[in-house]
Every structure is written in C-alpha cells, then in structure tokens.
Amino acid sequence: MVGVELLEDYTPGDFYFGTSRRTILGSGAGRTFTGTDVVSLSEAVSAELTGSSLAVGVLPFDTAGAPGHVVVPSTVRTSGPSRPDERKAVGAPSAVRAVPEPVRHVEAVGRAIKILRDGGLRKVVLARALDLEFDFDVPAQAILNNLAKDRAGAYTYAAGLPNGRVLLGATPELLLSRVGGQVVSHPHAGSVPRSADPVTDRENAEALAGSRKDQVEHAVLTEAIVETLRPFCRRLDAPREPSLVSTPTMWHLGTVVTGDLVDRDVTALRLAAALHPTPAICGTPTEAARRLVGELEPFDRGYYAGAVGWMDAAGDGEWAVSIRCAEVAARSIRLYAGGGIVPASDPKAELDETSAKFQTLLRAMGLDL
Ligand SMILES: C=C(O[C@H]1C=CC=C(C(=O)O)[C@@H]1O)C(=O)O
C-alpha cells in the first residue's frame, strides 16, 4: 500500500487529484472563484495565489449551463501516488435508467452523421448518461478508492461542485500541464474497447491504429490543439502520427504535444481555458458543434467534458479533461460517456463505444451492467 493516506482521508466536498507521480488533497474553501468567463476566472485566480498556495477546481463543458468553479482550499496536503491494495464495497443500485434510451442515442448519432456528410461540420462529440438510484448514500470515497486501485485512468479525481454534488472519475486525457516554461498536452480521440482475450485485444488495437475513420477523428483534435497553443509557444512539437494508448477498458489514439512558452506569465489555467472545449469533447468548428450537442443531447453536461485540475502561484499546474466520470448526488449517480462522430462513423459502433466507456465507473462500482 503506497501513499493511500490522502485517499483514505478524502471526504465528499474535498478536491482529490491523483496521478502516477503525486496525490493532492484539498479541503475547506479558503476562497472561491466562480465565473462564466473562464479566461477572466483564470486571471482572478492567478492574482489571488501567493507563496505555496494552490488553486483547484473544475471547468464545465459549457458555461451557459454551469460556471467555472475554482477554490483555494484552506488545507492542501500532497503525497506520492495513491495505490490502494483493497477494493471497497459500493452496493447495488435499486434503479438504472439510460438517458436517452440507447435507440435514441443511435438516432442522434445518425442525425449528426447526416449533418456532417452534408458538409456543415467536421466532427461532433455526442454523449449519453446512465442514472443509477440507490437506497443508501452513494459511497464516493469507495468509488474513488476503486478507481485508484484499478488504475482506471492517468488522472483520478473528485471535486466538490457549486451545486453541492461531487464529480468523480478517472480520465486518461491531459488537457494541459505547465512546468516552468514547458507545456504538454496529450489529446485522445479514436477508440476501441479492450478485450479480456489477449489475441482479440491486440487485434482491436491494430484495427484502431489502421482505421482511417479514427485517424481523421484524431487529426481534427491534434490540429486544434496545435493551432491554439502555437501563438503561446516559441517551440511546439507534435509527432505526425498518433500512438496507441490504453486504459483497463479502452484503446485510444493519443498524441503528446510539447512546447516552450514565449511568456512565462501565461498560467496553466489560462492555457487550459484557451484550449477548452477541444474537439475531443465538443467538435469542429467549435460553436456549431456546441450548438449541435445542445440540440441532440437531452441533458445538460454540467461538469462532464469540462476540465479538472490545479494551479500554483507560479502558474504551473495540471488540467485533465473531465471524462470517464460521474456526478454524485446523495442517493443517485449520473455516469457520462461520449464519442467523437465524423462522416465515416457508424451509429451502432458509437453506441457500443459509449457502453465500453461507462465501464470505467461501472467496474469501480463493482457493477456488471
Ligand atoms: C468524450 C469521451 O472521450 C473522448 C476521449 C477519448 C476518445 C474519444 C473518442 O474516441 O471518441 C473521445 O473524444 C468520453 O469518454 O466521454
């Protein structure tokens, strides 16, 4: 058992962020910043941070639905990585409901494909949700423990939301990290499910690497990241071809983009605000894709498909894309999963992809749905 004390001490409302290098636990709100203009929000937060203080928080998918929410916790503790040995029991739900019904998601993807083929857009990301009701309070700490135990994603997180709920998950995708003058982004797009059978698993990965449709889906994303970061960087590198990356449940195409900043006053949160929403979770062109998401999805995304992370007084920090996550209310939990749609997408395959993406949370809850 390595460095699990902070994980054990987590209580709902705290901010938890765990990676392979460190664990951050922030408790108690010393100062809270809430705003719908994330660039102004990032500037207000920078102005407040001094010495060793840290700001932590979440950005929503769309500030028309929920504000950016960043706090300077009264207590911040950090340690090495948290690797629990034991799984914790979560318990079974009394009701499960898909939002929308799977057949309606297939229809929405079909409509999106038609719009894309008619030439209006290059890519849009459509999501669906799974609502689970319980006869007891949802044990957020147990789910977080199990996500860390499963090493379910490179960034395991939980954050208190302004509505009193908790966003928790384990995402593979880095929106932006900044250390001194160096920035890194690790965009992910293009996916296939893992398989328990090693031969099928390898075949799935090879099919993904060779898939023209997934290459296009990924290229749209990397282009957008590079275009957004270029004005901020004097050096910016991105490999021509994406690489295969995996979580316990999914294979993805990923590209590590690295750069050197022109101006070291540009903070991690400011850069994350510039990048968000990327085509990994919204689409291209951004505004048209955001409108289509609003038209085709029958729910508000809230803090799903936003960003979660931290920043220090020097402007360094890490912001991950808030996917493979759920929003926990007292006795209910809403899981989210989405997928990028391009003209060559297949609606049924997109439904299956979202089902596979739900597995990150479902496994952590010990559920076989
Ligand atoms: C939008 C999600 O995943 C994104 C990240 C990786 C791969 C994706 C894809 O292949 O569609 C999505 O762009 C999600 O998990 O809800």
TrEMBL record:
Keywords: Isomerase. It comes from Amycolatopsis alkalitolerans. It comes from the Bacteria. GO terms for biological process: salicylic acid biosynthetic process. Its EC number is 5.4.4.2. One of its GO terms (molecular function) is isochorismate synthase activity. Transmembrane segments: none annotated. This is isochorismate synthase. It holds the Pfam family Chorismate_bind. It is an enzyme of class 5 (isomerase). Belongs to the isochorismate synthase family.
